[in-house]
TrEMBL record:
Residues 279-484 form the Lipid-binding serum glycoprotein C-terminal domain. One of its GO terms (molecular function) is lipid binding. This is BPI/LBP family protein. The keyword Signal applies. It comes from Mucuna pruriens (Velvet bean). Gene3D superfamilies: Bactericidal permeability-increasing protein, domain 1, Bactericidal permeability-increasing protein, domain 2.
Amino acid sequence: MAPTICFLLLSFVFLSSSTSGFLQHHEEGFISVVISDKGLDFAKDFVIEQAVASIVQSQLPQIEKTVQVPLVGKAKVVLSDIIINDIQVNSSSVNTGETGIALVVSGATANLSLKWRYSVSSWLIPIGISDSGTATVKVNDLQVGLSVNLRNQEGTLKLILLDSGCHVKDLSIKLHGGAAWLYQVLVDAFAGNIASAVEEAISKKIKEGIATLDFLLQSLPKTIPIDETATLNVSFVDNPVLSDSAIKLEISGLITGKNEVLVPQGYHKGSEISVSSGDRLPTMITISLHENVFKSGSLVYFTADSMQWIVDELPDQALLNTAEWRFLIPQLYKQYPNDDMNLNISVSSPPDIQVTNKDVGVTIFVDIIIDVLEDGEVIPVACISVDISASCAAEVVGNNLAGWLKLRKFSTYLKWSKIGKLRMNLIQSVTSTVLKTILIPYLNSQLMRGIPLPILNGFSLENARILYAPPWITVCSDVSFLGDYHLKQLPA
Ligand SMILES: *[C@@H]1O[C@H](CO)[C@@H](O)[C@H](O)[C@H]1NC(C)=O
Ligand SMILES: *[C@@H]1O[C@H](CO)[C@@H](O)[C@H](O)[C@H]1NC(C)=O
Ligand SMILES: *[C@@H]1O[C@H](CO)[C@@H](O)[C@H](O)[C@H]1NC(C)=O
Ligand SMILES: *[C@@H]1O[C@H](CO)[C@@H](O)[C@H](O)[C@H]1NC(C)=O
């Protein structure tokens, strides 16, 4: 194992000496996830915890040898039920560099228990003697290192084990029972075997663990449904970029219709994100969403005709009968006396969305068609156009990025009318009612569901805060692990 450790140490030096920043890359995503030093540390501790849990209680293969013991004779010694009972990790570190991620555990200690038995035959004692008992082994200095790389494989992440090594530097044996010569035999003839059995067992677990993590990454979905209309594309774009202090992942981030595969055309990512986190403490991850994510969503909902509503109930229901308008719009009442009415509200172009320094600016163009319902017929009688300017405050709800829309201002004009000219203040007041009691509350109920942020199952955002860095919205957050169901559920 020693040569591997040397190689590892060399590659760590190499890794940590590369200090260049993020490389240039080709395809770009509209969601980017940066895992900081602090995030990597969290991931490292998580991985070590999982690894220790998987190693503890593992049984090593039986070791047997026949040794010539001076004055005793030929002894056949068997060590069985060799079990790693406990591992304590004293110090560990994780380093990233352009070529990979290196994790080192040094000075770990471990406890093993085992059963021994022997039988001796010699010309002195022709009948033979045998004995059995137990022993404990303490591994005092265990070093483990591994380096991995992450690559994009058709939109998912592939975790590649570049190198790994495990080295037991020192172990001591405590015999319960047995003869003095046996102790010497264990130390002289068996210590090396025990050490390599431990090394092999741990190396094997590392390979299995990496395969499990790889499986976990590969089984991440490439799209996440948002609702019955839209799907968020969470395919990874390009290779992860490793720098000496962070890992940056890019995700497509575009929202498409349920059965649509094509990526909407004509978007350009624009500027790089530059977020200053102020004097706040650094967080584990930073998830940035480009305004094009929201724009693509706006387009999808618009094209899916889901921005159209027929309103036949108002807080003041009398407003939806021509009788109420007898004096204000005499023509309406004259043509359609005592008829019920409804409002056909439709958004006339995809709402425009722009991230600003303090919120998300939303511009919505709406047509409100006033329909009269007469003898089962729907008769449009007038159309009011409304230009709405609203601001949306982003907030993190669970692992979703949600929003809260506030009406800033609106302007109205009469697009057409079959019932003569309508008074401006009338139009204003109808519009205001519709916006405040129907449209904005409805949009908010939708927005509160939010867009799922790309977080692994089983983890949740903690102490998330939002920064606006036009054209990006950035979520800075820590992450916590909700339980231990996930890794244990996976197939071996
Ligand atoms: C743990 O590590 C520290 C620093 O590396 C060292 O000083 C200390 O002796 C170690 N403790 C054990 C129990 O190995
Ligand atoms: C090993 O066993 C000893 C004594 O039973 C105990 O004090 C220690 O915590 C155990 N674990 C390790 C990793 O040494
Ligand atoms: C998701 O985005 C990737 C990268 O842009 C693209 O190759 C893939 O076709 C998209 N998937 C869907 C379902 O639109
Ligand atoms: C509502 O108005 C739109 C035009 O703005 C029209 O296409 C649609 O058919 C109308 N819906 C109903 C139910 O009248």
